[in-house]
Design brief:
Mean pLDDT: 80
Radius of gyration: 18 Å
Number of helices: 6
Helix content: 25-40%
Number of domains: 2
Largest sheet: 6 strands, antiparallel
CATH architecture of the largest domain: Orthogonal Bundle
CATH class of the largest domain: Mainly Alpha
CATH topology of the largest domain: Transferase(Phosphotransferase), domain 1
Distance between the termini: 36 Å
Strand content: 15-25%
Protein name: PhoP regulatory network protein YrbL
Shape: globular
Protein backbone atom coordinates (compact mmCIF):
# COMPACT_ATOMS: atom_id res chain seq x y z
CA UNK A 1 0.00 0.00 0.00
CA UNK A 2 1.14 3.54 -0.67
CA UNK A 3 2.07 5.50 2.45
CA UNK A 4 1.60 9.22 2.86
CA UNK A 5 1.71 11.68 5.73
CA UNK A 6 -1.34 13.67 6.70
CA UNK A 7 -0.74 17.24 7.86
CA UNK A 8 -4.02 17.26 9.77
CA UNK A 9 -3.30 14.36 12.11
CA UNK A 10 -4.44 14.20 15.71
CA UNK A 11 -1.75 13.87 18.40
CA UNK A 12 0.82 14.29 15.65
CA UNK A 13 0.96 13.18 12.04
CA UNK A 14 -1.05 10.21 10.85
CA UNK A 15 0.44 7.63 8.50
CA UNK A 16 -1.97 6.86 5.68
CA UNK A 17 -1.98 3.17 4.74
CA UNK A 18 -5.10 2.92 2.61
CA UNK A 19 -7.75 5.03 0.90
CA UNK A 20 -11.26 4.01 -0.15
CA UNK A 21 -14.25 5.76 -1.69
CA UNK A 22 -15.57 6.88 1.71
CA UNK A 23 -12.77 6.35 4.20
CA UNK A 24 -9.08 6.79 4.77
CA UNK A 25 -7.19 4.25 6.87
CA UNK A 26 -4.36 5.41 9.14
CA UNK A 27 -1.96 3.78 11.56
CA UNK A 28 -3.25 4.59 15.05
CA UNK A 29 -0.92 7.28 16.49
CA UNK A 30 -0.90 5.70 19.96
CA UNK A 31 -0.73 2.03 18.97
CA UNK A 32 1.04 0.85 15.81
CA UNK A 33 -0.72 -2.53 16.04
CA UNK A 34 -4.03 -0.82 15.24
CA UNK A 35 -5.48 1.29 12.44
CA UNK A 36 -8.21 3.91 12.50
CA UNK A 37 -10.66 4.42 9.64
CA UNK A 38 -11.83 8.02 9.25
CA UNK A 39 -14.22 9.69 6.80
CA UNK A 40 -12.46 10.93 3.67
CA UNK A 41 -12.97 14.28 1.98
CA UNK A 42 -16.72 14.17 2.66
CA UNK A 43 -16.30 14.17 6.41
CA UNK A 44 -20.02 13.95 7.15
CA UNK A 45 -20.25 10.59 5.38
CA UNK A 46 -20.17 7.68 7.83
CA UNK A 47 -22.13 5.06 5.88
CA UNK A 48 -19.42 2.42 5.83
CA UNK A 49 -18.37 3.04 9.41
CA UNK A 50 -21.99 2.62 10.52
CA UNK A 51 -22.25 -0.63 8.59
CA UNK A 52 -19.03 -1.97 10.11
CA UNK A 53 -19.96 -0.97 13.66
CA UNK A 54 -23.45 -2.45 13.29
CA UNK A 55 -22.26 -5.71 11.76
CA UNK A 56 -19.32 -6.25 14.11
CA UNK A 57 -21.69 -5.60 17.01
CA UNK A 58 -24.04 -8.25 15.65
CA UNK A 59 -21.19 -10.76 15.31
CA UNK A 60 -20.14 -10.02 18.90
CA UNK A 61 -23.69 -10.72 20.14
CA UNK A 62 -23.59 -14.06 18.32
CA UNK A 63 -20.27 -14.83 19.97
CA UNK A 64 -18.42 -15.05 16.65
CA UNK A 65 -14.65 -14.85 17.02
CA UNK A 66 -12.69 -15.55 13.87
CA UNK A 67 -9.06 -15.13 12.88
CA UNK A 68 -10.12 -14.51 9.28
CA UNK A 69 -11.41 -10.99 9.98
CA UNK A 70 -9.63 -8.01 11.54
CA UNK A 71 -10.46 -7.43 15.21
CA UNK A 72 -12.75 -4.47 15.92
CA UNK A 73 -12.09 -2.17 18.90
CA UNK A 74 -14.89 0.38 18.54
CA UNK A 75 -15.34 4.10 17.88
CA UNK A 76 -12.83 6.82 18.66
CA UNK A 77 -13.20 10.61 18.60
CA UNK A 78 -10.56 12.61 16.70
CA UNK A 79 -10.30 16.21 15.46
CA UNK A 80 -10.80 14.78 11.97
CA UNK A 81 -14.08 13.13 12.90
CA UNK A 82 -15.25 9.94 14.55
CA UNK A 83 -13.38 6.87 13.37
CA UNK A 84 -13.39 3.11 13.83
CA UNK A 85 -10.40 1.32 15.32
CA UNK A 86 -9.35 -2.06 13.95
CA UNK A 87 -6.50 -4.51 14.29
CA UNK A 88 -3.56 -3.79 11.99
CA UNK A 89 -2.66 -6.96 10.12
CA UNK A 90 1.08 -7.67 10.27
CA UNK A 91 3.40 -10.43 9.13
CA UNK A 92 5.09 -12.50 11.83
CA UNK A 93 8.19 -10.32 11.44
CA UNK A 94 6.18 -7.16 12.16
CA UNK A 95 6.07 -5.91 8.57
CA UNK A 96 2.59 -4.75 7.44
CA UNK A 97 0.68 -7.35 5.43
CA UNK A 98 -0.06 -6.57 1.78
CA UNK A 99 -3.26 -6.92 -0.22
CA UNK A 100 -4.00 -10.09 -2.15
CA UNK A 101 -3.78 -7.99 -5.31
CA UNK A 102 -0.20 -6.97 -4.47
CA UNK A 103 0.71 -10.49 -3.39
CA UNK A 104 -0.38 -11.93 -6.75
CA UNK A 105 2.12 -9.62 -8.46
CA UNK A 106 5.06 -11.07 -6.53
CA UNK A 107 7.39 -13.48 -8.30
CA UNK A 108 7.58 -17.19 -7.52
CA UNK A 109 4.33 -17.40 -5.55
CA UNK A 110 2.59 -20.76 -5.16
CA UNK A 111 -0.74 -20.22 -6.92
CA UNK A 112 -2.08 -23.59 -5.81
CA UNK A 113 -1.45 -22.55 -2.21
CA UNK A 114 -3.22 -19.23 -2.81
CA UNK A 115 -6.23 -21.11 -4.14
CA UNK A 116 -6.22 -23.48 -1.15
CA UNK A 117 -6.00 -20.58 1.30
CA UNK A 118 -8.88 -18.89 -0.47
CA UNK A 119 -11.01 -22.01 -0.09
CA UNK A 120 -9.96 -22.22 3.56
CA UNK A 121 -11.09 -18.64 4.07
CA UNK A 122 -14.44 -19.39 2.44
CA UNK A 123 -14.99 -22.39 4.74
CA UNK A 124 -14.36 -20.21 7.79
CA UNK A 125 -16.88 -17.65 6.57
CA UNK A 126 -19.48 -20.34 5.94
CA UNK A 127 -18.79 -22.01 9.28
CA UNK A 128 -19.24 -18.80 11.24
CA UNK A 129 -21.95 -17.32 9.03
CA UNK A 130 -19.94 -14.17 8.29
CA UNK A 131 -21.28 -12.03 5.43
CA UNK A 132 -18.40 -10.99 3.19
CA UNK A 133 -20.43 -8.77 0.87
CA UNK A 134 -17.58 -7.31 -1.17
CA UNK A 135 -14.97 -10.05 -1.70
CA UNK A 136 -12.22 -8.42 -3.74
CA UNK A 137 -8.47 -8.86 -3.87
CA UNK A 138 -8.13 -5.42 -2.24
CA UNK A 139 -10.23 -6.30 0.82
CA UNK A 140 -8.11 -9.35 1.72
CA UNK A 141 -4.65 -9.01 3.25
CA UNK A 142 -1.99 -11.71 3.04
CA UNK A 143 -0.03 -12.09 6.29
CA UNK A 144 3.22 -14.02 5.90
CA UNK A 145 4.34 -16.50 8.56
CA UNK A 146 7.90 -17.19 9.74
CA UNK A 147 8.04 -20.66 8.24
CA UNK A 148 6.92 -19.44 4.82
CA UNK A 149 3.19 -19.96 5.18
CA UNK A 150 0.49 -17.36 4.64
CA UNK A 151 -2.93 -16.55 6.06
CA UNK A 152 -5.73 -14.46 4.61
CA UNK A 153 -7.46 -11.79 6.70
CA UNK A 154 -10.46 -9.71 5.63
CA UNK A 155 -10.07 -6.03 6.47
CA UNK A 156 -13.01 -4.50 4.61
CA UNK A 157 -16.23 -5.37 2.80
CA UNK A 158 -18.17 -7.13 5.57
CA UNK A 159 -21.93 -6.76 5.92
CA UNK A 160 -22.88 -4.64 2.92
CA UNK A 161 -21.92 -1.65 0.83
CA UNK A 162 -25.19 0.12 1.66
CA UNK A 163 -26.87 0.75 5.01
CA UNK A 164 -30.36 -0.26 3.94
CA UNK A 165 -33.11 -2.82 4.55
CA UNK A 166 -31.34 -5.49 2.48
CA UNK A 167 -28.31 -5.17 4.73
CA UNK A 168 -30.36 -5.73 7.87
CA UNK A 169 -32.19 -8.72 6.38
CA UNK A 170 -29.10 -10.45 4.98
CA UNK A 171 -26.82 -9.70 7.90
CA UNK A 172 -29.29 -11.08 10.46
CA UNK A 173 -29.82 -14.34 8.60
CA UNK A 174 -26.99 -16.84 8.81
CA UNK A 175 -28.46 -18.82 5.91
CA UNK A 176 -28.71 -15.75 3.65
CA UNK A 177 -25.22 -14.65 4.68
CA UNK A 178 -23.78 -18.01 3.67
CA UNK A 179 -25.72 -18.03 0.43
CA UNK A 180 -24.43 -14.55 -0.38
CA UNK A 181 -20.85 -15.63 0.28
CA UNK A 182 -21.20 -18.61 -2.07
CA UNK A 183 -22.47 -16.48 -4.95
CA UNK A 184 -19.92 -13.71 -4.41
CA UNK A 185 -17.09 -16.21 -3.98
CA UNK A 186 -17.53 -17.61 -7.46
CA UNK A 187 -16.81 -14.16 -8.92
CA UNK A 188 -13.75 -13.68 -6.72
CA UNK A 189 -12.38 -17.11 -7.61
CA UNK A 190 -12.96 -16.51 -11.32
CA UNK A 191 -11.11 -13.19 -11.19
CA UNK A 192 -8.28 -14.82 -9.26
CA UNK A 193 -7.95 -17.69 -11.73
CA UNK A 194 -8.13 -15.40 -14.76
CA UNK A 195 -5.46 -13.13 -13.28
CA UNK A 196 -3.34 -16.25 -12.80
CA UNK A 197 -3.73 -17.24 -16.45
CA UNK A 198 -6.13 -20.13 -15.80
CA UNK A 199 -9.27 -20.41 -17.91
CA UNK A 200 -12.37 -21.74 -16.16
CA UNK A 201 -15.32 -22.89 -18.22
CA UNK A 202 -18.65 -21.28 -17.40
CA UNK A 203 -20.41 -24.66 -17.13
CA UNK A 204 -18.03 -25.74 -14.39
CA UNK A 205 -18.88 -22.62 -12.40
CA UNK A 206 -22.59 -23.28 -12.84
CA UNK A 207 -22.17 -26.88 -11.68
CA UNK A 208 -20.20 -25.80 -8.62
CA UNK A 209 -22.80 -23.17 -7.77
CA UNK A 210 -25.55 -25.77 -7.90
CA UNK A 211 -23.54 -28.17 -5.77
CA UNK A 212 -22.84 -25.45 -3.20
CA UNK A 213 -26.54 -24.56 -2.95
CA UNK A 214 -27.52 -28.22 -2.51
CA UNK A 215 -24.85 -28.65 0.17
CA UNK A 216 -25.97 -25.50 1.98
CA UNK A 217 -29.60 -26.62 2.08
CA UNK A 218 -28.78 -30.22 3.00
CA UNK A 219 -26.81 -29.17 6.06
CA UNK A 220 -29.07 -26.20 6.90
CA UNK A 221 -26.30 -23.63 6.39
Amino acid sequence: MDKEKSKQGFLGELELVGRGTERDCYVHPLDATKVIKLPGSRKSVQHQNKIDADYYGYLAKRGVKSDCIAMFYGWEETPQGVGLVFERILNDDGVPAITLRSYLKEKEIDLSNVYCKLEELKKKLLRDGILFADPTVDNILVAKKKMGGIRFVIVDGLGSRRYDLKFHIRSRSVFLSRLRVLFRWMKLRRRLLVSSGVVVKGRIEVFLAGWHLWWARKYDL
